[in-house]
Design brief:
The complex is a heterodimer of chains A (460) and B (122).
Chain A (H helix, E strand, L loop, with lengths): L24 H8 L4 E3 L2 E3 L6 E4 L1 H8 L8 E2 L2 H10 L14 E2 L2 H7 L6 E6 L2 E7 L2 E4 L2 H9 L18 H7 L4 E9 L4 E2 L10 H11 L4 E6 L5 H10 L10 E8 L9 H13 L8 E7 L6 H14 L4 E4 L14 H7 L21 E4 L3 E4 L4 E4 L10 E2 L2 H9 L11 H14 L6 H10 L2 E2 L10
Parallel strand pairs in A: 1-6, 11-12, 11-14, 12-13, 14-15
Antiparallel strand pairs in A: 2-3, 4-9, 5-9, 6-7, 7-9, 8-9, 10-19, 16-17, 16-18
Helix pairs in contact in A: 5-6, 9-13, 10-11
Chain B lengths: L2 E6 L2 H7 L9 E3 L4 E8 L1 H10 L4 E2 L5 E2 L3 H14 L4 H7 L2 H14 L13
Antiparallel strand pairs in B: 1-3, 2-3, 4-5
Helix pairs in contact in B: 3-4, 3-5
The chains are: A alpha/beta (460), B alpha+beta (122).
């Protein structure tokens, strides 16, 4: 039987999209009735107290199917399976522990045990229910170290020991050490605020959108940044890797959540990417912007596995990967994501690339090197094509942030004026162009969502 | 690995260095849209800068970036005063009194940076 050259939409990772959202209000109210109540709290950095994570985002990403087949907060056994083999207990690839941590004091006040159900509140309103399968203790530092790897255990890609300067490591390190494991269901669908509302495409909806657009092949672009023209060229060129024709669509999926100090604010990231298609630099017929709620772990190759899972679930056929994917600092080799997707990383439980292992991924990587400005070519050029590496002027996000901070408009060859104006718009709102402590606190107070009031009986 | 730091020159800064030896060191970036002077930074000085300003980092090109605006401003001032890009610039810049002034100004930058006065997409 000949194999078609035409690539089809991959199935969700694990075979089926999780849908743990209760849309029937009567059922939701009845599920929540008489339950002990826990008000979701942020994880605060043990170093400076900044809010660095809010578990509501993980509830959302589980319940709406982004993390399929994961449908719960992990038990001890599942976390061990993930840390040893980067697999769930049913064998499907999954890179990170997803832990609902709680303080000893809060657990005591709740008075719950295995087999009980807890009502999770967000902004003082009912939000979700968690069915407790296990209550278990852990050492946050141990989980943090084993999540990201060490130079000794993972020499292929880890270059130095992780520490509190790594924002992802710090998230795990700052957890409480006590976990509630079990399935979670959203019972009161949050309402996204502007501008987030127009970028919310959970996997069921994104797959439907691709169908209605006639996008058979779709390449995902991961972002936590406002786009410069290097990103734009990455998208445009990576999209040529379709099958019998270039990819029909480019899906920008921005990771939205608590970020490290100095990153761009989430609103600017979303609207900045939107400006790329709004002003025609990439046609809106071929480019759309979406978001996933997740407090980034900045885990480079491991993060890329999660990105592959999310975007396969969203219906993407391809995923572009560049240098320093989802990275911060020099903890990992700059090309470790591409190593993973080309050869695998045996010490992380992947003796072959994620698409070549059992219960792996079906999304195809497109490993791209870098784009730079070449004064001799007089244009943005691809590093493997341009023969003028000695005079190439590389893109540097840090350099661009430095220009912006000094009040200098970046030149249009590296930054579209309309995208710059989005940055200035949100700069005026927050008096600062980047994430700072004030923004983190405000973001934690406001979040991306509001909850509709829901009356729940205190009696079962 | 040798490190570098770039000082971007707007019209006012270009005017300040006109007629000096610094003028010949001006480099065109990105097709001439930006003008800059690049200084070489010895490793020990680079490590000192990274230590004094924890958010500063060395990017993939080997340039020290994400230093406070106050630091870059002061770097230009010292460079213009000494009319030099040599190591003596950093010697002067990192003197305790000057450094503490820079840090005081930098601390305010964590909360507020004046946005540029341009029209923006509403």
């Amino acid at each position: 039987m000949p194999v078609s050259l035409k690539i089809q939409t991959p199935p969700p990772h694990g075979g089926k999209l999780v849908d743990a959202v209760v849309r029937d209000e009567n059922k939701a109210v009845s599920m929540a009735a008489g339950l002990p109540v826990y008000d979701i709290k942020p994880t605060r950095s043990i170093i400076d107290g900044n809010p660095i994570r809010n578990v509501y985002r993980e509830v959302m990403s589980i319940a709406y199917g982004f993390f399929s087949p994961l449908d719960r907060f992990m038990t001890r056994n599942e976390v061990e399976s993930v840390l040893k083999e980067r697999r769930l207990t049913d064998g499907w690839l999954f890179p990170f522990p997803i832990i609902f941590d709680i303080s000893e004091d809060d657990l005591r006040k709740l008075g719950v045990k295995e087999g009980d159900r807890v009502l999770l509140r967000l902004k003082s309103q009912p939000f979700a229910v968690l069915d407790i399968e296990e209550v278990w203790k852990f050492d946050p530092k141990d989980i943090a170290d084993r999540t990201f790897g060490t130079p000794e255990r993972n020499p292929e890609v880890v270059r130095r020991r992780f520490d509190e300067k790594h924002p992802g490591w710090l998230i795990y390190r700052s957890m409480s050490g006590l976990a509630l494991a079990g399935k979670v269901h959203v019972i009161n669908e949050p309402v996204f605020k502007d501008p987030y509302n127009r970028f919310w495409y959970p996997p069921a909806k994104s797959r439907e959108e691709f169908r209605s657009r006639g996008w058979r092949t779709v390449i995902a672009h991961q972002t936590r940044n406002v786009p410069h023209t290097g990103h734009e060229h990455l998208m445009k060129n990576a999209a040529y890797m379709g099958d019998i024709e270039p990819c029909h669509g480019i899906l920008v999926n921005a990771i939205i959540g608590a970020k490290r100090l100095g990153d761009f604010v989430d609103e600017a990231i979303l609207e900045g990417h939107e400006a790329v298609n709004k002003y025609g630099y990439i046609s809106p017929k071929r480019h759309m912007v979406t978001m996933t709620l997740w407090d980034m772990r900045y885990g480079n190759p491991l993060e890329s596995l999660l990105h592959g899972i999310i975007r396969q679930n969203m219906g993407c056929t391809h995923h572009m990967f560049g240098r320093d994917h989802a990275a911060v600092g020099d903890y990992y080799d700059p090309y470790s994501t591409q190593v993973l997707w080309e050869k695998g990383i045996p010490s992380f439980g992947l003796p072959a690339p994620p698409y070549d292992v059992d219960k792996g991924l079906k999304i195809r990587p497109v490993n791209i090197k870098e784009f730079w400005y070449c004064p001799k070519c007089g244009e943005i050029a691809y590093s493997d094509t341009c023969g003028h590496a000695d005079v190439a002027q590389r893109f540097s996000g840090s350099f661009i942030r430095g220009l912006i901070a000094e009040g200098i408009e970046p030149p249009p060859i590296i930054f579209r004026p309309e995208v710059y104006r989005v940055i200035v718009k949100w700069w005026r709102v927050y008096n600062y162009p980047f994430v700072n402590r004030k923004y983190l606190e405000l973001k934690e107070r406001e979040l991306e969502v509001d909850l509709k009031p829901m009356e729940v009986s205190s009696r079962r | 690995m040798p490190y570098k730091i770039a000082v971007i020159l707007d019209k006012a800064r270009l005017e300040r260095i006109r007629g000096t030896s610094l003028e010949g060191m001006v480099k065109d970036l990105y097709g001439g849209y930006l003008k800059a002077i690049e200084l070489n930074v010895p490793d020990d000085i680079a490590q000192r800068i990274l230590k004094e300003f924890p958010r500063a980092r060395i990017d993939a090109r080997g340039f020290i970036e994400e230093t406070p605006v106050a630091f870059k401003r002061e770097l230009f001032e010292v460079m213009a005063q000494l009319k030099s890009t040599g190591p003596e610039v950093f010697g002067e810049l990192l003197k305790p009194e000057r450094l503490s002034r820079v840090k005081e100004a930098a601390a305010k930058e964590d909360e507020y940076l004046p946005p540029p006065n341009i029209a923006y997409c509403g």
